[in-house]
Specification:
Residues 35-69 form a coiled coil. This protein has 244 residues and is an alpha+beta fold. The chain is built from five helices and six strands. It is elongated, with a radius of gyration of 47 Å.
Length: 244
Amino acid sequence: MDEQFQLLFEKMKIEMQNQAVSISNTIMDRIDEKLKLVLEENKKLIFKVENLEKKIEFLERDKKGNNIIIYGLKEGEKSTRELIENAKNKFQKELNLVLEDYDINKIYRIGKPNKGDKPRPVLLSFTCGWKKNEVLKNRKKSKELFVAEDFSKEILEKRKALLPQLIEERNKGNIAYLKFDKLVVKEGTKPKENRKRELSVSPLTNVQPKKQQTASFSRNNRANAFDLMRNRSNSLTTYLTDKK
């Protein structure tokens, strides 16, 4: 009896182990299926988030596309009208550019008022992009104002991180500049040597114009023809005398 119970117990144990393995396998398969669905949904969500971030970045770039930041504009105005007039006068004096009221979309100081004499930067938004580009082209003329483009914090951090590489490329002699959040590098061109063309001495020193050459050529031909006729006449007379 004990042996039979022992055999029965062993069989039950084996069956229970097999059932446990099959149950665990089925559970794992179901978990894998659910995980696959979750991972696919996660990928879709990541893709949507990336697209949304790109759209937000594009909207921010478009929003700031016509903006500039002015540093060094003395602060003392009491209204927006006075700030506009101050900016217009400085632009005409420093950059030799005339700003009209219809060129300005909005203008205001950035940040809270300072206790010291340092003026707050001014954000100036233009109604069109070409006026902004005109200001940026002439901004180096100013001695008191510093004009910069209006970038987001993320773009400013990227540009700041690229500055060491920018300096390195320029030290190498390459043409390097920052375009938005990218570093553009072009190989430096060596200055062309001004080579003066040396005057070559022609072996024919007495070179005559074409008309004179043709005229002299025709004269020589005429002279040769007369000589030929003379030689023929002389030979004829000698022939007649010899015959007599």
